[in-house]
Structures are given as C-alpha cells and as structure tokens.
Amino acid sequence: MRRPSPLPTWDEIASIAADHGIERLGVAPADVLERARAALLERRAAGLHADMGFTYRNPERSTDPQRAVEHARSIIVAARPYLAVDEPERPPGAQARVARYAWVDHYAPLRVGLRAIAARIKQADHRAVAFADDNSVVDREVAHLGGLGWFGKNANILLPGAGSFFVLGSIITTAEYPVGEPVADGCGSCRRCLDGCPTGAIVAPGVVDANTCLAWLVQRPGTFPVEYREVLGDRLYGCDDCQEVCPPAVRLGDGHRVDLVDAHEPVQAWVDVLDLLEATDDELIERHGRWYVADRNPIWLRRNALIVLGNTGDDDDDRTRRVLAGYRAHDDEMLQEHAEWAARRLADRVGA
Questions:
Q1: Bridge partner list, 88
Q2: Of these residues, 31, 133, 134, 272, which one is catalytic?
Q3: Which of 29, 265, 276, 310 could be a cystine partner for 345, CB 3.0 to 4.6 Å?
Q4: Active site residue 133
Q5: Tens digits of residue pLDDT in 115-127
C-alpha cells in the first residue's frame, strides 16, 4: 500500500511556481466570497453586467469554493506576468490592435504551473484542483483575500511593486496553508484610470459598466453601439487603456516581463484588417479561436474589423474599396450596416 508523501512546504510550492514563471503566490480561506457575491448580484441587478456571463452567470457557484472542491480548506492563488520583453512594432497598412493579455495564451503556462503544484499536493492524499480563466471562482477576489494585491479603481488587482499586468489562477484544495493578509489600498487619490477610460466605463472606483466597456463590447454579440465606434479606434480585441494610464502598472510593470520567443503559437499583437475580412470562417477560428468569440462565430471579429477599417483604412486603396463593397452586399444585414458605416467613416476622414 502506497504511503502518502508529506504535505509540500510553502517553500516547495514556491519553488515549483517559480519554475513555471509564477511570480506571486498567496493563500485565501476556502470560505464563501461574501463581498464578491454581493457585488455580482448588485451589479447584475443594476444591469452593469450587460448580459455578460462568466462569473455573473451563477454567482452562488462562482463565489463558493466548496462547489468546486468539497471540504476545501485553502485556495492557493497565483499571478504570472504577461508584459512582453519585446513588443512587436505595428506593421504597415490597416492594422487592428490586440490587448496584451491576448497576444499569446498566457493562461496555458499558468495552468501547467498550477497543475504541477496541485499534483504535488495530491501526493499527500489531499484534493487539489487548478482553475485559471475559469468561471468556477472569482479569481480577483481570491487574489485580494490571499494578499496578492489591492483592487485598483479600474477593478484590476494591483500587486505591490509589480502593477496589474498579470494573469491570475487558483488551486482549491483540502490541504490547509496559512492565509495571507489583504493588501491595503494603494491608489489613494489617483483617478487616472477613471479619467483615461475612452468611454467613461469606470463609473465609480472599482465599478465598471460593461455596457460601455470596450473590452466587453468587442466580445459582446450583436450590433456594435454606434456611439462607441469611432472611439474603438484600432482595437480588435480587448482594451489596455485603464492599465496603460495606471502609474503603478506603468512604473512597476516594466520589471516583470516574459519572453514570448518560447510561445508555441504566433504572437498576435496586430492583425491585418483586410486579411481578416478576406479570410474564411474556418481560417479565422484557426487563427483566433483561443479568444472568447461568442458562439464560436467569426462574424463578431468581422464586425470589429469593419469598424477598425473605417477608423484606420485608406479610402484610396483599391483592395480596401473592394473588400468594403463585398461586405456592403453581404448576406448578413448586420455586416452590411457596419460596412456602410465604415465606408462613410472613411469618406468623412478624407474630407476632414
């Protein structure tokens, strides 16, 4: 009969984490996340979630670690940086911007590290399940309770001495480890993220209205709100603005970068808009399928790309005119309308 191994020490867990690029670790109690649950329910009732699913879909589940791992005692929470050592330059032509967290799959190496830690804990005959980019647990709340950082006014977790350009993940386990101390607020009177949001989506410190947040609007299915099309600019997927104006993220993030040379996929910092609009659905899912694309339907990528083309394209370019003409005659009325808008926007920019 196999004898269980001793429970790994915190130093051993930290060593495994470091081997996988995980820079920060903390521990939160495996109790109901009461504050997060109240916030989710309140904001959903107020309509601030804008039909967003994720942890809003079932707050009772996503705020109760026991639903994920029965008899859990601890939640180990981890942060891995995603700022790149070398940031790709913008190529020529009409290019669409991608938020930094989505250039490559940063959650994949995080999961590998979390699962390695979980496997070691399981050797001690404890349950341990890793979660990253998963709706089973509100990871930012766990990160705060576990002592990784404070909630910034942009609703991101800010790590002391490191900023906010990190992906988060957790291990819910029946093993018990000492719980961390929540980090005190470090924003003070600063409100640069509130003032710097392109659409004013941060309606109060730590409260984001998804109805106007560009990061959600590019993912949300349906017609893109006309009033936010110009301000979308060249964004195809995600928005970094509230972090790019955050003093701790800008000042401290530079010391916490990862090398994307070893990424097992192309780095997608920029996407050629015309190439995207001329690609087949299968090609788009193959290229961008790891992103959240509603219903796995590339129509929403095409919609975004048409807006970007209107904002950044060249009205004198034959290929641009040909692509727009094709979409203005498209079978889908929604794409037709966005192509018409893009054509008018190009003409207005030329006349300005």
A1: none
A2: 133
A3: 310
A4: yes
A5: 999 999 999 999 9
In angstroms, the CA 159 to CA 149 distance is: 4
Q: What is the CA radius of gyration of the chain?
A: 22
Is the C-alpha dihedral spanning 187, 192, 195, 197 positive or negative?
negative
pLDDT the model gives residue 52: 72
What gap in Å lies between CA 127 and CA 135, rounded to an integer? 19
Q: Per the structure block, which two tokens stand in for 305?
A: 């790309």
Cβ-contact 175, 126 below 8 angstroms: yes
Q: Is this prediction's pTM over 0.70? A: yes
